[in-house]
Amino acid sequence: MSGSPVQRPWFETIFDERYPELFGPLEGDAETEVEEILALLPLPPGSAIEDLGCGRGRHAIPMARRGHKVTGVDISENMLRLARCRAEKEGVQVEWVREDMRTFCRPRAFNLCLSLFTSFGYFSDEENRKVLDNVAKSLKEGGALLLDLRNAGKGLSRLEDGDKTMEVPTGNLRMSVRFDPRTMRARAEHTLVRPDGIRISSTFDVRIYSMEELREMLLKAGMRVKDFYGSLSGDPFDDESSRMVVHAVKAKGRSWRATWQKD
Q1: Does residue 154 or residue 13 have the better pLDDT?
Q2: Residue 187 C-beta-side C-alpha neighbours within 13 Å
Q3: What pTM, to 2 d.p., does this model score?
Q4: Residue 16: which CATH number?
Q5: In a domain, 52, yes or no
Q6: Which end of the chain lies in a sparser environment, N or C, as judged by fewer CB atoms within 10 Å?
């Protein structure tokens, strides 16, 4: 007698054909965000960039179009297929790698690692630390990490349950968030009701970290925090910020920018 089927973790199932409809309306304009990133962290021409959790290549492709050597890493073959198709259509060269961020490591390969649109915090604390360890090992000396986290900027003491409904091009999107202060994890469910009455939904669950926790985790991984921002454009970070953008560097004694440009 066979047992019940093993339930796959949410991050192995959420990134499918439903994702653009359920989460696309919340995404910013990638071209603008890439320009903001490059203004915040000026890159030498042809820099090696790791886009960790690259999804459909929203940021990887614009970065590559600007002359950088981009490696997009994602666990979802569905998302990577969309990314490949778009890159081929636009004639842009990107290296696409299907691998779990808990295992992907390419020692001293990258000038910059991007982790955007809350692509960090999916796992247990131990596994999340492993992700940061891999990032640090994959960065060249003086390389930088830009970690863009959703909602963490509102201050942990003020995190609470919430529900919101919005009209989107494909129907009516309801977003429900439940925060557990014991585990410091936020569980969100997105449900879309299309005009024809068809209903689709997905649920995700992420660990919400404080500034102090992130600073300590990054330090233990071999990186130091340069700054916290409230947006990718470098707005000051405060309790009202909708984003927590962490800029960390891997450096030993010398200026990270000077070291970076020598690689």
Answers
A1: 13
A2: 7
A3: 0.84
A4: 3.40.50.150
A5: yes
A6: N
